[in-house]
Amino acid sequence: MKVRRSDRLIDMTRYLLERPHQLVSLTFFSKRYESAKSSISEDLTILKRTFKARGTGLLETVPGAAGGARLIPYMGQDEADALVADMVTELSQADRYLPGGFVYMSDLLGQPTTLRQIGRLMATEYVDTPVDAVLTIATKGIPIAQSVAEFLNVPFAIVRHDSQISEGSTVSVNFVSESRQRIEKMALAKRSLAAGSRVLLVDDFMKGGGTIGGMRSLLAEFDAVLAGVSVLAEGAFEGNRVVPDYTSLLKVSATDNQIHVAPGNYTQKIYTPERVNLISE
């Protein structure tokens, strides 16, 4: 049964949004809607224009027999600034202060809509950079890593402090926790990463960078390549961080029952002139 254009556009939008970074052939859409490829091409032109106008993503069209369309989600800077501003306001509330200079963020990371926005923003940095996997440690960073992996359409793996029998053989390393000033251990299942994988490291909070440094050491054991480091928030830290190059959405510090939250370095890292030109073409 042939499908009307309005119905096709709705279903194509849903299909592409659910499969970011995946090349979908014109032949597939043509058979799915019993429509000519010329009509599908016109539909994709409409979607490309709309996605760009709404800041939803970049719809790439690949010509040729093996070609098709691929949606690369991104977030425009205005929308990103609004998201970060909302998080700054939310986390600046005085009742979020916890003993020991910590800030309560668990409820923020428990909101599906906010998590999706965070994942989409972090994924925007890699619209022009290949990523094969996302890696995080078994803390509150797991839902963030899962969201980023969803928008990049790549698997994500979890590093644990203790190896689990259900994960089979593992590779472990020792690392120095800069904030706690002690040696700790982390382990990752051997089947988690393929050699040569380009891996994005994601975490919810970074202070001295010891945990990220430990995950970088694990990448070396897997012959994997570091694609980048992205954290939700960086804390105040005196001295040199183990990880000099990273992207943070927020800067958070809490002293003397006072919470100070400000935007991180995401603007300089994500919205470079080259990337802005790419997503605005």
Low-confidence runs:
none
The helix fraction, in percent, is 25-40%
The second-level CATH architecture of the largest domain is 3-Layer(aba) Sandwich
Q: Strand order of the main beta sheet, please?
A: 7-6-10-11-12-13
- What's the total number of strands? 13
Number of domains: 2
Instruction: Summarize the main sheet.
Output: 6 strands, mixed
Oligomer, anyone? single chain
pLDDT averaged residue by residue:
89
What structural class do helix, strand and pairing data support? alpha/beta
Element-level helix/strand string = HEHHEEHEEHEHEEEEHEEEHH
Our estimate of the beta-strand percent is 25-35%
User: At the first level of CATH, what is the class of the largest domain?
Assistant: Alpha Beta
Shape: globular
CATH fold name of the largest domain: Rossmann fold
User: Helix segment count?
Assistant: 9
Tell me the Rg in angstroms.
21 Å
How far apart are the termini? 36 Å
Keywords: DNA-binding, Transcription, Transcription regulation
Domain Phosphoribosyltransferase: 108-262
Family: Belongs to the purine/pyrimidine phosphoribosyltransferase family. PurR subfamily.
Protein name: Pur operon repressor
